[in-house]
Design brief:
The protein contains 1 helix and 4 strands; from the N terminus they run H-E-E-E-E. The protein is α+β, with helices and mostly antiparallel strands. It has one domain. Strand 2 and strand 3 form a beta hairpin. The longest helix has 27 residues. Bound molecules: 2-acetamido-2-deoxy-beta-D-glucopyranose. Keywords: Signal. This is Multicopper oxidase. Belongs to the multicopper oxidase family.
């Protein structure tokens, strides 16, 4: 009898832990969202336009940088 009671207590504790994890995760990103990963390689480059050279910030060798696509609820991780 006492072992089944402790079993029940363990299960209840486990369930409450899982519920807490699900809740805290939902606060950061809804369950429907996905995580999108981007890697940005930042470099300075000299650009010459109309006989005038200036230093510009490029992302992955591009200016302007790449487009970030995300939908509502998504999590975007950008590694720079
Ligand atoms: C840009 O031009 C300057 C002056 O010519 C030079 O010192 C610098 O190294 C150049 N930077 C790059 C990223 O090429």
């Amino acid at each position: 009898m006492t072992s089944s009671l402790s079993d029940l207590l363990m299960k209840a504790l486990l369930l409450s832990c899982i519920a807490l994890l699900a809740f805290s995760d939902a606060a950061v990103a809804p369950p429907t969202g996905i995580t999108r990963h981007y890697k940005f390689d930042i470099q300075m480059a000299n650009a010459t336009r109309l006989c005038h050279t200036k230093s510009i910030v490029t992302v992955n060798g591009q200016f302007p940088g790449p487009k970030i696509v995300a939908r509502e609820g998504d999590r975007v991780v950008v590694k720079i």
